[in-house]
Amino acid sequence: MRALLIRGMVTGLVAAAVGLLVAWIYGEPQVAHAIAFEESHAAAHEHGEEVVSRTVQRTAGLVTAMAVYGAAIGGLFSIVFAFAQGRLASASGPLGARATAALVASLGFVAVVLVPALKYPPTPPAVGDPGTIGERTSLYFGMVALGVLGTVAAVIVYGRLLPRLGAWNAATVAAVGFAVVVAGVFRLTPRPDAIPEGFPGTVLWDFRIASLGTQLALWATLGLLFGYLTERASGGAGRSLRTSPRLAAPGSTGSSYAERTHPG
After folding, report:
1. Non-local CB neighbours of 92 within 8 Å, separated by 6+ positions
2. Higher-confidence residue: 56 or 141?
């Protein structure tokens, strides 16, 4: 487990570097436009002294934040992967290391990034009332918790329905159920902030796309690279956990997934 955790954190740092590149190319220009808008309206608002310069924010600050975030996400990813390996399955049997990592990364992106962003999308400077920061933070992390819990529930439902409905139908039912629950919560939760009058819509749109693109690049790199390294460390696909005794049904000695779920 220690080797897996280290691999996850290192992979997370590499993924953060890829995400950082996307943020620099596509996100930073939009932040600059938003700051320019904010400064042009400074006469109407009182601003405190700048604690951290913009240069530090977009260089050392952004690098440090992305590195810490990437290492943390990579470590958590490795723990989830260790639990999921050999337990996530398709109709033909348990998934290998690469497929498991790709699926965990996809589900993680949906749960941690996409679900919260659909209700509370990221906003650049000059958007949002400073007085509502606490409320917005609580609502955002509550939506992250909903995404994680909903995703876990959908995976459990898929696993329960797989033997009876098959992979496609089970995945459809789980996905539809997940979407219905999320849509219901979206309808009931408030949106505390409005866009300031005169703020350029293209800047807001481009910033949100860049933010999602940064996260997508990070999670995609994490899933693909971690799966490749794990498969390589285990000696290839042939040495995955598919025939691990702990996956066998009681009384068996490592029968295949198909034999355990369809004994006839």
Report:
1. 257, 258
2. 141
Sequence-separated (6 or more) residues with CB below 8 Å from residue 9: 71, 74, 75, 78
State phi, psi for 28 to the nearest 5 degrees.
-60, -40
Residue pair 120/128 in contact by the 8 Å Cβ criterion: no
Secondary structure string (H, E, C) spanning the chain: CHHHHHHHHHHHHHHHHHHHHHHHHHHHHHHHHHHHHHHHCHHHCCCCCCCCCHHHHHHHHHHHHHHHHHHHHHHHHHHHHHHHCCCCEECCEECCHHHHHHHHHHHHHHHHHHHHHHHCCCCCCCCCCHHHHHHHHHHHHHHHHHHHHHHHHHHHHHHHHHHHHHHHHHHHHHHHHHHHHHHHHHHHCCCCCCCCCCCCHHHHHHHHHHHHHHHHHHHHHHHHHHHHHHHHHCCCHHHCHHHCHHHCCCCCCCCCHHHHHCCC
pTM of the model: 0.78
CA 139 to chain centre: 17
Helix axis angle for 201-233 and 97-108, nearest 10°, is 160
Contacts of 158 (CB under 8 A, 6+ apart): 170, 171, 173, 174
> Per-residue pLDDT tens for 151-175?
999 999 988 898 888 888 989 999 9
Number of neighbouring beta carbons within 10 Å of residue 60: 11
Tell the burial category of 47 from Cβ atoms under 10 Å away from its Cβ (0-12, 13-18, 19+).
exposed
